[in-house]
Amino acid sequence: MLYIIGLGLGDETDITVKGLEAVRSCSRVYLEAYTSILTVPVPQLEALYGKSVIVADREMVEDDLNAILKDADSDNVAFLVVGDPYGATTHTDLVLRAKQLSIPVKSIHNASIMNAVGCCGLQLYNYGQTISIVFFLDNWRPDSFYDKIKINRAMKLHTLCLLDIKVKEQSLENMARGRKIYEPPRFMTVNQAVEQLLEIEDKRGENAYTKDTIAVGLSRVGADDQIIIAGTLEELLDCDFGQPLHSLIIAGEMHFLEAEILKTFAVNPETFDKFASISLH
Fold first, then answer.
1. Which of 30, 141, 240, 270 could pair covalently with 56 via S-S, beta carbons 3.0-4.6 A apart?
2. Mean per-residue pLDDT for 157-183?
């Protein structure tokens, strides 16, 4: 059996009872370690599980699925995912490969950033398309997310922005030369995401949002030290969101109860009242 197990967003204790029982039944335990990160080191997981944990980086997950699935037709193998198992398409690839090999698969779900963002007060059914914002490079500054934000805001919906993570990435030079030398990990901050959003608005000029648009920056959602700060995009540029991982929400029109809760996180309540789009219905 291949178990794909969500770990939640906080520390090692966020795993469900069902997930923990499954892990303890497995002969091998892998931790997917490039689409997200936990707030605790691997030894803390191992101490709780009573099992060794193999860190599965991008190369292993994308290029060597057969190693993960080896003997899973006769033994139990666990593949651990921060958040919920199906937050990244790579995990769907793993399930498809297992099914092709006639390996039974069981998924055990958990909280993910997709639903935990409700902690800021914006209601989950008022969100539109989720977008990803990647680190800009000197010669590559993609803006495909802009059109989705524009559509969401035209429909008065909120936009969850997932921010880039670079773990075990090669520079272009090292990749071209075939050298297995990796760059230090990088995690996009809310501040960097806002800078890039404003740059693209300046470039496109279609008024999808402005520097005065209300947004919400979040960090380490689910952890004891999580941070939630609401304000205009311009205000969020100078806020300290602490350690990764960070997420950003661009607010659409808010129900008055949404606005009332979100305002408790505002940098400046007066600015919030001035620029928030609020419905009384």
1. 30
2. 78
Q: Helix axis angle, 17-24 relative to 42-49, nearest 10°?
A: 80
Q: From residue 263, how far is each of 33, 256, 260 by CA, in Å?
A: 35, 10, 5
Tokens for 185, please give them: 């990990």
> Hey, is 106 helix, strand or coil?
strand
Q: How far apart are the C-alpha atoms of 158 and 169, rounded to whole Å?
A: 31
Helix 190-204 to helix 145-154 angle, to the nearest 10 degrees?
80
Kindly report the pTM of this predicted structure: 0.92
The DSSP annotation for 191-258 comes to HHHHHHHHHHHHHH-S-S--TTSEEEEEESTTSTT-EEEEEEHHHHTT----SSPEEEEE--SEEHHH
Task: Give the span between the Cα atoms of 82 and 102, in whole angstroms.
Answer: 26
Dist. CA 97–CA 93, nearest whole Å: 6
Q: Helix, strand or coil for residue 275?
A: helix
Is 108 within 8 Å of 171 (Cβ atoms)?
no
Strands 246-250 and 77-81: unpaired
